[in-house]
C-alpha cells in the first residue's frame, strides 16, 4: 500500500514536471488579432521538411479572412504548410520584432516604406530575378536599399482622396462637375454644411483624432504637403528636414473638413464616431478614405466616387488621386532555402492563380502582376481615369515620414489643441510638429 | 509515542531526500520565466539590437542616452507624483471603506462585492470607458481630457482609485477582522473614544495590511501602463520650439514602451536600459517602503 502510494506520487510529480517543461517549450503565444494557423503543420518546426514551410505575417487586418482561406486552399493543393498570422491594427512593428526572434520566424513579411527598409532590410533576401519579381508588371512599388538590393515588392496598390456621395451633392442642388479645385469644393462643402439642418445630411463625416481615424489626416492628408513640396525635385530618400512650404494648403483642406462636418471640432479628440458608417448611412456627402474601403462603401453608395485632395495649389485642376502602397512583401533571409523557395512559390500562386488572385484583388484592389485578374474597384478606376485624362498622380510621399508613429503622435497632439481652439498660435504648434518634428524624428532615427 | 517520533523522523528523511526533486519544477519555471529573461534583459541593455540574436555589445551608451532623454526624466517625476498621490488616496479611501463595512451595517456583503468589481475589468477597457466618461463631462466646457495635463493627471487618479480601492479594501477588511475583540473591549472599558481606539488600537493592529497595501499601491503606481496608454496616451504634448515634444501625461512604463517601438537601430537598446533603471527604482523604493512600514508593525 505504502509502496503503491510512493509510486503514484512519483508518477504524478514526474507528470507535473513534464507538463511544465512541455508548456515552456511549446508553441509560443500568437500575437493579438491573429487567427488560428492553418495547414497540417502550423507551428512549422524549424524549416524541417524538404518542401519548406510558409509563415506569412500579414499586415492588413481586413485581409486576414481571405489570407487564412487562401492558405488553407494552398495547403490542400500542394501539401505545403502555410501559416498566416495577422498583426492587430497599428501593431505590425511590435509583432514583427517579436516574431523575428522566434525559432520559426515569418518567412514572408511586410517592409512597406523606407524606414522599414532601414530597420529590416538586412533581414530580407534580394528579390531581383526571383520568380515573383518576374511576375510583376511594374517596378513602381518596389523598395530598394542603398546598395540596390530589391528588399520588398509591392503586392497591391491603392489610392486615397476624398470620397463623395454624388446623390447627396445633387440633392443639395450642386453638380459633381462643379468641383474642379479647392475654391469650388469649398463652395459646395460650405453650402451643404450651412443647410445641413434643412437637407438632413452634412458635408463631411466626423474627423476623429483617436488612433482609429487620425491617420486619415496625419498620414494621408499630410501627403499633399509633402507631395507638392517635393514635386519639382522628387525625394528619393527621407530628407533630414522639410520646409513646410505647402502647410497653408494642408490647412485649407484640413479646416474645410473639421469645420464642415457632423461633429464639432472641439469634440474630436477622443473620437467615438464612426465615419464610415456615417457615410454609408447617407449622413454626410464627403469623407476622406482610401480604395481599400471600396467594397463596403459601394454596397451602401453604389456610385460613390473619389476626387483628389484639392487644397488651393496653382494648377490643381490637373491633380489626380494619391496612389501608392505600403503593402510590400519581403522574404526572410534567415530561414532555410527550402522555406524561401516555398514562400516564393506561394507568392507566385497568390498573384497568378485565377481564383487566388481574384480573391486578393477583391480585398486589395489592383495587383501589379502580369497574370493577376483585373480589379473591379471603382476608386482605383477613378484613379486610372484621372491619369488617362492627363492628371498628375500624387504618389505616397508620406511613406518617408521618419519614426512614423512618434511623428504622427506629435501631430495628433498638436491638431487636438488646434481643433479645440483654432488660434494662430495653435496652428504654429501644428506647423512646428509637422516641420520641426520631422527633423527631430529624423535625428532620432539616424542620429 | 515511539511510533510517532519514528514516523516524524521518516517524514523528515523523505523531505530531505525528495525536497530537491519537488522543488525542481518550480525552480525551473522561476529560472526560465524570470531569472534568465532578467539576466538577458540586463545584457541587452548594454547592446544595440533589433532582434535578440543580432545583439551587438556597445557598453553604457544606452544608459547615457536614457538619462539624457528629457521625456524620460519628465516621465519619472510625473510617475513619482502620481504614485505618491495615488498611494495616499487609495489607501485612505480603501481603509475608510473597509472600516465602515466592518461596523456591521446592513448589506455590507453586497457593498464589498460592488466595491471589488471594478478590479475585475481590464486596464485598457477601463481607460477607454473612463476617457468617454470624462470627455462626456468635459465637453460641457468644450474641452477634453487630452487637452489639459491636469485633467489627465486627476483623471488617471480617479480611474485608479475607482479600480484599486475595492482590492485594497478586501485586504484591509481581513486585517480589521483580525483585530482582537478583547483589545477593543479593553479600550472601550478604559474609556477610549472612537478616534482614540482607531488610532491607538485598530491601526497598529492592521499594520501588516497597511504594509502590503502600501507596497502594492506604490509599485502599481510606478508600473502603471494600460490605463495610461488608453486614457491619455501621454497627451497633451508640449511642442517645444525646435520640434521636440514632452508628453505631459506619459508615465515611465509607457515611455519605455514607446521608446522600444520607435524606428532606428538604437531605440530598443535604450528602451532596455530604461527598463533596467526602472526595475532598480521600483525594487529599491518598494523595499524601502516595506522596511519602513514593517518596523511599525506590532506583535499581537
Question: Can you describe what's shown?
Answer:
The complex is a heterodimer of chains A (447) and B (300). Chain A is built from 17 helices and 12 strands. With 447 residues, chain A is α/β, with parallel strands linked by helices. Chain A has 2 domains: 14-157 and 325-376, Periplasmic binding protein-like II (D-Maltodextrin-Binding Protein, domain 2, 3-Layer(aba) Sandwich), CATH 3.40.190; 159-323 and 401-446, Periplasmic binding protein-like II (D-Maltodextrin-Binding Protein, domain 2), CATH 3.40.190.10. In chain A, β1 (54-58), α2 and β2 form a beta-alpha-beta unit. In chain A, α16 (404-420) runs antiparallel to α17. The radius of gyration of chain A is 25 Å and the shape is globular. Chain B is mainly α and 300 residues long. Chain B has 12 helices and 4 strands, in the order αββαααααααααββαα. Chain B has helices at 2-44, 61-68, 70-101, 108-116, 123-138, 149-177, 181-189, 194-205, 207-223, 226-231, 252-260, 267-295; strands spanning 47-48, 56-57, 237-239, 245-247. In chain B, the strands form 2 sheets. A two-stranded antiparallel ribbon of chain B has the order 1-2. In chain B, strands 3-4 form a two-stranded antiparallel sheet. In chain B, α11 (252-260) runs antiparallel to α12 (267-295).
